[in-house]
Design goal:
heterodimer, A: 265 residues, MetI-like fold, 79% helix, B: 279 residues, mainly alpha, 15 helices
Chain lengths: 265, 279
């Protein structure tokens, strides 16, 4: 009897907790966004400022994902294959953006690349500033997804290719890249999702309507000016939410693919 | 022709380029900005930094710090219990809703904190589905401490489960089954077999959860209403000082937050090393 009760109680408690904290609020966004019907929803999200913010968010996330995939793979490579003094320190720095509060990230970037920049590089309020902040917060994703795969990678295959006369670039393209590709993709997807929703590091760094206002900042300003009528911020939120769900499902598919690969090997 | 490749100069150049790129990139994006915040905080000396923290009234900073610690003290244990429980459920049991649980645990990582905050306002606000029921009983969630706790719990929900789950899958069930055949009660098995074997992964997950809770800004700034000396957490304090043109106070507060996360980072790498060397 006890075990049967336990068998029911455990899952239901876990699902209840998850529902109260995550699921119901997510459903509430969708309900509120579509409260006045589909037409109102569409006209809300096609307002000029909102469209501009969504476009900036998508473009910036895409740019950062491409940059990070290159930078992250290079950094992971150095952390795994290279040996030099201070490597441990570099590895710790990679984790910093995970641990650092986003508002602190924003202020640190502002103090170095803002109006009072000691190098006279003022990126605040520019699209480049948005990219800088996104590059900061998404740095660990690409490095940490590629790194474990690179560690597992058999160096013998590369040596074999080299002994058969393959040039380094050919080895990279034909031997290393195919093995890394799924991990790079899943790191890119995680970084993309993170970049779409970033708020804290951008709030003081990028908040000019039409120019550097990303979707999250837009939702916040709609929320502040909405009073009790929360349809407009909910509508923009729903767009972000759907995008995140799609990416999440994609990552799940990649992960299952990786597990299948590992099993069949 | 020899089969062994002659070591050419090219890989050496590539190696140095990559090394330089890594150091340069990490310095430009993370390390130097972080250093500059230390410089900015103490630009006018230690005493000036302390004074700037107290600009908004002497108790404001202290209140924000205590509130942040209080919120972490509630939200982190809640999510730790949930994380371990759901990881054990997902690894050891089949039940309806398992896939749902598995998929939705990750959601907070991918969703904007502002969206999270808005969703919580819609549900727990005075006119919300659950909020109106609670308000009729005199319980206020939004613009109050419970709302901050829920928001912090939301954003940090995945970390414990995601850290523990792979370890549970890897260690398998042999020892647990052995304990059960020897007559150990489920709770004894959990306490003496399962928990000890996942302890470092658990420590890793708990530290990540703590870091996330201490640093949450977007979700908390929506649900808290940011009322000074009442619902202002440390991150909100920093944002508030900056918005009110007290840059010194903002930088000093940010430095304190950064030091807290550096401490967390130290614990993280310790947990990771222990996990790697653990049998």
């Amino acid at each position: 009897m006890v075990t049967v009760a336990g068998r029911v109680a455990g899952p239901s408690l876990a699902v209840t907790y998850l529902s109260l904290i995550v699921l119901i609020p997510v459903v509430a966004i969708a309900t509120q966004a579509l409260h006045d019907g589909w037409g109102t929803f569409v006209s809300t999200i096609t307002q000029k400022e909102t469209v501009a913010s969504l476009r900036l968010t998508l473009i910036s996330a895409a740019v950062i994902v491409v940059v990070n995939t290159f930078a992250g793979t290079a950094i992971a490579w150095v952390l795994v294959r290279d040996q030099f003094r201070g490597k441990r320190l570099l590895s710790a720095i990679v984790d910093l953006p995970f641990a650092l509060p986003t508002i602190v990230a924003g202020l640190t970037l502002l103090s170095l690349y803002g109006p009072d920049s000691p190098f006279h590089l003022n990126a605040a309020g520019t699209v480049f500033g948005v990219w800088l902040a996104l590059a900061f917060v998404t740095l660990p994703f690409s490095v940490r997804s590629v790194q474990p795969v690179l560690e597992e990678l058999d160096k013998e295959t590369e040596d074999a290719a080299a002994s058969l006369g393959a040039r380094p670039l050919v080895i990279f393209r034909r031997v290393i890249l195919p093995a890394l590709a799924p991990a790079m993709l899943s790191g890119a997807a995680l970084g993309f999702a993170r970049a779409l929703g970033e708020y804290g590091s951008l709030v003081f760094f990028a908040d000019q309507p039409f120019h550097t206002e990303v979707a999250s900042v837009r939702i916040f300003s709609l929320y502040q000016s909405a009073g009790t009528d929360l349809e407009a911020p909910a509508a923009v939120s729903l767009v972000l939410l759907v995008l995140s769900l799609v990416i999440l499902l994609g990552i799940g598919a990649i992960r299952r693919h990786l597990v299948r690969d590992a099993v069949s090997r | 022709m020899t089969a062994l490749p002659v070591p050419s100069k090219r890989p050496l150049v590539t190696k140095w380029l990559l090394r330089l790129f890594t150091i340069g990139w990490l310095a430009a994006i993370v390390a130097v900005p972080l250093g500059s915040i230390v410089y900015r905080t103490f630009e006018n000396g230690f005493a000036a930094a302390m004074r700037s923290l107290a600009t908004g009234g002497s108790g404001e900073f202290l209140h924000a710090l205590l509130l942040t610690v209080l919120v972490a003290a509630i939200a982190v244990p809640l999510n730790t219990v949930f994380g371990v429980a759901s990881a054990i459920l997902l690894a050891r049991h089949r039940f309806p809703g398992a896939r749902l649980l598995d998929a939705f645990i990750d959601l907070p990582v991918a969703v904007s904190p502002v969206v999270i905050g808005l969703g919580l306002v819609l549900v727990y606000g005075r006119t919300g589905w659950i909020g109106s029921w609670l308000a009729a009983r005199g319980i206020e969630v939004i613009f109050s401490v419970p709302g901050i706790v829920i928001a912090s719990a939301f954003v940090s929900i995945p970390y414990v489960a995601r850290a523990v789950l792979p370890v549970l899958n890897e260690i398998g069930t042999e020892q647990e089954q052995a304990a059960a055949t020897l007559g150990a009660r489920p709770f004894a098995t959990l306490w003496r077999i399962t928990l000890p074997s996942i302890r470092w992964a658990l420590a890793y997950g708990v530290t990540l959860t703590t870091a996330r809770v201490l640093g949450e800004f977007g979700a908390v700034s929506i649900v808290s209403g940011n009322i000074t000396n009442k619902t202002e957490t440390l991150t909100l304090f920093v944002g508030d000082q900056f918005a009110n043109f007290n840059q010194g106070g903002a930088f000093a507060g940010a430095l304190i937050l950064a030091l807290m996360s550096l401490a967390v980072l130290g614990l993280l790498s310790l947990a990771r090393r222990k996990e790697e060397t653990a049998p």
